Amino acid sequence: MSTTNPSSPSQGGGGAKYAIFGLLLLLVGGGAIYMLTRNTGSTQPPPPPPRRAEVDAGETQIHPSVGVEISLPDELPDSGIVEAPYDAGPNTGPRIRYVYRYVNQCPGSVDTNRVRAVIQTNYGGLRECYNRQLRTNPALQGRVTAMITINTNGTVGQISTGGSLTRDRVFKSCFEANISRMRFPVPRGGCADFEQAFNFSPGS
């Protein structure tokens, strides 16, 4: 009667097959992992192309041309205003001459003696303006010139005064107010201007 040995060659051959199969699985798995990692690394996006603004040092930049290049002549020195004569040529027009005529606003005339007589008659009021200020300033004296515009009806239209005494504002105001109330002879040919000078001093 024969017996079976547990460590027979048939059982040992089965273990070797399992070992070979396992080795193949390892090889196949490693190859698959290698391929996956290779494909993943190769899917990175390519670097962007260089910008157009970055030009090599030796490359010449080309700019678009705009319009036509215009050459301006050199400026000539200023020679001032030159007036061409009237007969400088057929294409020269006549020169325009500007004539300024100062027209007196009051072209009328008045009898100066009668005007002075009116002023002399009312001189007391003018002297009182001076005496009033003389009380506060005993050294007050000087000259007053009055330019009087006499209207066509004999009233005073305008009065302007000058002179050293007009620096005293109180005297100036009183003096002009007295003259503005005077009534003069009616001038001929419109309103008239009349000028009269006055001298004031403590003894006169």
Overview of the structural elements:
The structure is a single chain. By secondary structure, the chain is an alpha+beta fold. The chain has a domain at 112-199: TolA/TonB C-terminal domain. The chain is 34% helix and 12% strand. It has helices at 9-42, 112-121, 123-136, 169-180, and strands at 142-150, 156-162, 192-200. A 3-stranded antiparallel β-sheet has the order 2-1-3.
Q: How many H/I helices?
A: 4
| CATH topology group of one domain | TolA/TonB C-terminal domain
What oligomeric arrangement do these chains adopt?
Answer: single chain
Main beta sheet: strand number and arrangement? 3 strands, antiparallel
Extract low-pLDDT stretches: 1-10, 53-58, 79-86
Q: How many strand elements?
A: 3
Annotated CATH architecture of one domain: 2-Layer Sandwich
Structural class: alpha+beta
Q: Please write the CATH class name of one domain.
A: Alpha Beta
Helix content: 25-40%
Instruction: Supply Rg.
Output: 61 Å
One letter per element, helices H and strands E, the order comes to: HHHEEHE
The share of residues in extended strands comes to: 5-15%
Topology summary:
Layout: H1 9-42, H2 112-121, H3 123-136, E1 142-150, E2 156-162, H4 169-180, E3 192-200
Helix pairs in contact: 3-4
